[in-house]
Structures are given as structure tokens and as C-alpha cells.
Design brief:
Elements: H1 4-12, H2 31-59, H3 62-83, H4 86-91, H5 100-122, H6 127-155, H7 159-184, H8 187-216, H9 227-262, H10 264-274, H11 278-300, H12 304-340, H13 343-346, H14 349-374, H15 381-438
Helix pairs in contact: 2-7, 2-11, 3-5, 3-6, 3-9, 3-10, 5-6, 5-9, 6-8, 7-8, 9-10, 9-15, 11-12, 11-14, 12-14, 14-15
């Protein structure tokens, strides 16, 4: 039986550099241990990022939260597209098509280009909003460089190194943002504090550990800018870059529309309540990232029963997480929001409930997406998420005008279930097609 991995790499396969010995296979590490490290790292990181948002809400106002959210919504899609999801390509590169230096070289080039584009976008704004966007270009650029090192670690199932880096980045970023915002009382200054903290972690932790692991794998961390190596890597990863852009637009189009049709204040309230869902998103990301190398191994070696069993369990976990979140929001959501953000945010119970419904659908769809990426179904994701983006724009345009932020949450619930159904259909169709081809 032909695996989905082989069917794609026949089109994009690139011979390893003969000058570099192929690294040894990644050791089989405990999935439970990897998950534990990943959940710890993500928990600390997400909590500290949430702490930054609470800082802006408590020391500032909903407008400050909205400014932060809009700046992120402008910078994130550009930088995510430029990332080309190289971390996922690395993590699923079970046959070692490319060396780390190829991934690093391409990431440096695309990150620099993305930072320039974001700064150009800042020219369309004025005052503190423009400075906020430029600050995000800096912080997201540094984050992108750390991310490519994470890809090397994830490929070798060293989730402990990723977790330690995330913990350092999260704690230092919260401290840096707090000091800078307290001193200058502007959003852009807080983001500059985040950027400085991330730069320290990248140079002091990520680079050193990356060199050590690369040496163990007979590789080098020094970037390579060979056109002959980068062209096939771009062809392979570009579809995922487009998909990442579309996913980011799916998340951020509502923010654009709320800020345009409603107000920055309402955007701030929507963003603050939406961040409560990151507790579930953190678990989804931890499990998905930990399971991706294992899923990729099953797909690459045609172990279809194991692949579907693990994929199905992940989706059921997503359903359970969403159900627990919805019940918790019904029982004591208002009290929790009032405790975290304050009274003016707690008067939006209906928004919180619909966000929880949307989260349940999103968790399941995300797990299905990890399975699709692990099976290296890259190209099909472009038309799939193009359709989902078009659906997002249409639904949000209609529902933001009718119901504001609550309308956005309802739209996301619909889109999440559509995405889940479509992703499962892709996986089923690919499996059926491979089975037919082997008969």
C-alpha cells in the first residue's frame, strides 16, 4: 500500500546533500513524556501571554487591548505565511529530505521579507497604532527564528527543549512587558519589551541547544542559502504557507471587521474573552505537536490502523475539552470573567457561551488538521482553506453587522464544524484512493 507521504515526495523529493551524512533516526520517546513536557511549556507560555493581556486590561482599558489585538491581527498573517510552516515540514521529514541548515536559511530570508512587509503596512496607520505594528514586526520576527529551531527539536521528539524555551520566553516576556508598559504606558512599548525578552532567550538558549543537537545529528546550525536546496523546499512548503495564511486570516478577519464596523473597544472585549479559550487550545497544541511525529511515522509506513486509532482518539479529546469548557462557562463564566478582567468585560455572557461552542468545534477540527498534515496532505489544504476563508469572510460580514462580536462567535461555530467535516472527508478520500490503487 502506498503511503500519502510517498505519493507527495515523488513530486517534490530532493536528494540529501551528499556532502553531509544523513542524521540518525529520531529516538522513539515516550508520547506521554513528550506530552507532559509540551503541556507544561505551553501552560506557562500561554498563561504568561494571557497575563500580558490582563495587564493591558487592568492597567489600561479595552481600547488598549483592542490596539494590541489589531496590531497582532495585521502582523501575524504576514509572518505566518512567511514561515511556510517549516516547523511542521521538519517534524514530518521522516526520510530526511533536507538538512536543518536548509530550513534555517529559508526561514531567515522569509522572516526578513515579512518584517519589511509588516513595516510597510504600518505606514497606513498613524501614531501609536503604527508603532504597535512595527513593534510586532520585530517581536514576531524573533519568534520566527526560534520556531525553526523548535522544528529540529520536534523532529527528534525533544519536546523538553521546546518546553524549556517556551517557559523562559513566557516568563521573561511578561516581565519585560510589565516593566515597559508601567514605564511608558503605551502598547508598543510593552511589545518592545516582549521582543527584547525573546531575543535574549533565542541567543542564550535556543541557539546553544540547537548547535548541540545538530552536532549529534551530524548537521550544522549554520544556515545555507543554496538555490538548488531552497527551491525544492519552497515548492514543498509553499502550500502549507498559503494554508497558514488562510488559517490566520480565518482567525483575524473577524477582528478586522469588528474594528471597522463596530469599535476598537468591542474588539478589545472580544479578544479578551476569546483568550480564555486558550486553556483548551494549549492542550490541543500540546497533544497535536507531540503526536505529529508518531502520526507521520504511521502514515509513512502505511500503518493505517494505528494512524486512524490515534487520530480518532485526538478528535474525541477535542470534543471532551469543548464540552467541559461550555459547561464551565454556563456554571461560573460570569464570575470568572469578572475576576480576571473586571466588571465591564463580565457583562458579555452570551458572547462567552458562543465562543465556547466555537471552541469545541475548533478543537476537533484542529486535531483532524494535525492528522492531515502528518499524512503530508499539503496541496489539498490550499483549496480547502481557501473555501473556509471565503466562508469566514461572508459569514462574518453578515453576522458582525447583525450581532457584533456575538455574531462573530456564532460564525466561528459554523465554520469549525464545516472544517472538521471537510478535513475528515479529505482523510477518508485519500485512504480510499490509496486502497483502490493497490487493488
Amino acid at each position: 500500500m502506498t503511503s500519502p507521504y510517498i505519493s507527495i515526495t515523488r513530486m517534490h523529493y530532493c536528494q540529501p546533500d551528499p556532502a553531509v551524512n544523513p542524521p540518525p533516526a529520531a529516538p522513539s520517546r515516550s508520547l506521554r513524556l513528550n506530552f507532559s513536557w509540551t503541556i507544561l511549556g505551553n501552560a506557562v507560555y500561554v498563561s504568561t501571554q494571557w497575563g500580558i493581556l490582563v495587564l493591558l486590561a487592568r492597567l489600561g482599558n479595552p481600547e488598549a487591548v483592542g490596539q494590541f489585538s489589531l496590531g497582532l491581527a495585521i502582523a501575524a498573517p504576514i509572518m505566518l505565511f512567511a514561515s511556510l510552516q517549516l516547523r511542521a515540514v521538519q517534524a514530518t521529514d521522516a526520510r530526511v529530505q533536507f538538512q536543518f541548515q536548509d530550513y534555517a536559511g529559508l526561514r531567515i530570508l522569509t522572516t526578513g521579507a515579512a518584517a519589511c512587509v509588516i513595516c510597510i503596512c504600518a505606514m497606513f496607520y498613524h501614531g501609536e497604532m503604527a508603532l504597535t505594528i512595527v513593534a510586532f514586526a520585530l517581536s514576531k520576527g524573533i519568534e520566527s527564528l526560534s520556531d525553526v529551531v523548535y522544528g529540529l527539536w520536534q523532529q527528534q521528539e525533544r519536546m523538553d527543549l521546546i518546553a524549556k524555551s517556551l517557559i523562559l520566553r513566557g516568563v521573561l516576556a511578561l516581565a519585560g512587558a510589565t516593566v515597559c508598559y508601567a514605564a511608558v504606558h503605551t502598547v508598543w512599548a510593552a511589545i518592545c519589551g516582549i521582543a527584547a525578552s525573546w531575543a535574549v532567550v533565542f541567543t542564550a538558549f535556543d541557539v546553544g541547544r540547537g548547535i548541540t543537537l545538530a552536532n549529534e545529528l551530524n548537521q550544522t546550525i549554520m544556515p545555507r542559502f543554496s538555490v538548488n536546496r531552497l527551491k525544492p523546499l519552497v515548492r514543498l512548503s509553499l502550500p502549507l504557507g498559503v494554508v497558514t495564511l488562510l488559517l490566520s486570516l480565518n482567525a483575524n478577519v473577524p477582528r478586522y471587521m469588528i474594528s471597522h464596523f463596530r469599535s476598537i473597544r468591542e474588539l478589545g472585549i472580544y479578544s479578551a474573552l476569546g483568550y480564555i479559550l486558550t486553556a483548551g487550545t494549549m492542550i490541543v497544541a500540546a497533544l497535536g505537536q507531540s503526536a505529529t511525529p508518531r502520526l507521520a511515522h504511521y502514515a509513512a509506513h502505511s500503518k493505517n490502523r494505528e494512524f486512524h486509532r490515534l487520530s480518532g482518539r485526538l478528535i474525541l479529546i477535542g470534543l471532551a475539552l469543548g464540552t467541559v469548557g461550555l459547561l464551565a462557562a454556563v456554571a461560573f463564566g460570569r464570575q470568572l470573567v469578572n475576576l480576571i478582567y473586571g466588571f465591564q468585560y463580565a457583562q458579555n455572557q452570551q458572547l462567552l457561551l458562543w465562543l465556547m461552542v466555537a471552541a469545541a468545534a475548533g478543537y476537533m477540527a484542529s486535531f483532524a488538521g494535525y492528522s492531515m498534515t502528518a499524512a503530508r496532505h499539503f496541496r489539498v489544504q490550499v483549496p480547502l482553506f481557501s473555501f473556509l476563508t471565503a466562508l469566514t469572510v461572508a459569514l462574518c460580514y453578515v453576522m458582525v453587522k447583525a450581532g457584533g462580536a456575538v455574531g462573530v462567535a456564532k460564525a466561528f461555530a459554523i465554520i469549525g464544524f464545516v472544517q472538521l467535516a471537510a478535513t475528515l472527508a479529505v482523510l477518508h478520500y485519500s485512504e480510499s484512493r490509496r486502497t483502490t490503487n493497490t487493488l
